[in-house]
Amino acid sequence: MIEINQVSQVFQTSARQDHLALSDISLTIQDGAFVSILGPSGCGKSTLLYIVGGFVRPTRGAAKMKGRAITGPGPDRGPVFQEFALFPWKSVLGNVMYGPRQQGIKHAEAEAQSRALIEMVGLKGFEDFYPKELSGGMKQRVALARTLAYHPEVLLMDEPFGALDAHTRTRLQNDLLNIWERDRKTVLFVTHSVEEAVFLSDKVVMMTRSPGRIREIIEIDLPRPRRRTELLLDPRYQKYIVEIERMFDDSGEGE
Ligand SMILES: Nc1ncnc2c1ncn2[C@@H]1O[C@H](COP(=O)(O)OP(=O)(O)OP(=O)(O)O)[C@@H](O)[C@H]1O
Question: Fewer Cβ atoms within 10 A, N terminus or C terminus of the chain?
Fold first, then answer.
């Protein structure tokens, strides 16, 4: 689904110096896979996601989706970021309907689809609420529903649960997995949390300290559907977490 070929990214800092953020990244992401990117702060995780999103053009190398060069953002790749970026003047329903309406879907159909998505993300009953009336977790659910409403083939998630308290985060992880298990979209997920990456993913891409290179790709061979309470008792789950935590320790960056 996504192919990243020898991508390097150099940014010019305001002091007019070149800063190598990513160095020679090559990665293939299969259709329907859940892939997380982990690594020390500043190693270029978000930059890699933005390149796939088409928001950043790589200095060297190329990213492709289904064999086509990615030259800009597109509805086939839906971003879900930590800042929810909801329209404050639109209700939950209005926010979710925005995408389908933009795509020319008739009002009644867009509304029906959006109501179904709102229910799917666990917000039935809140359709007429405005963003300022929602908690952080609820806003992130709306943001997810809004992105899903574009029917993207790939979800690009940049620490979407990073700002949430532990309990809300766990619930959203569970819900995301349930949604993903239903329609198996390809997901590229940036996180700081080793546990989150292992719990969610088929593959964890561990990056080095800046300039970011791929240090290792760890296949997470745990059965699905996954339940956190079962996994917590599973030594294989613990082993993955310890193995990856040790890589953080090696890089001088504990989590
Ligand atoms: N637009 C930009 N201009 C200049 N430098 C940038 C720009 N965007 C990112 N960088 C630099 O590139 C490096 C990688 O940034 P990036 O945000 O991708 O890292 P990250 O791994 O996502 O970090 P964190 O985990 O802290 O969120 C950093 O050193 C950052 O300062």
Answer: C
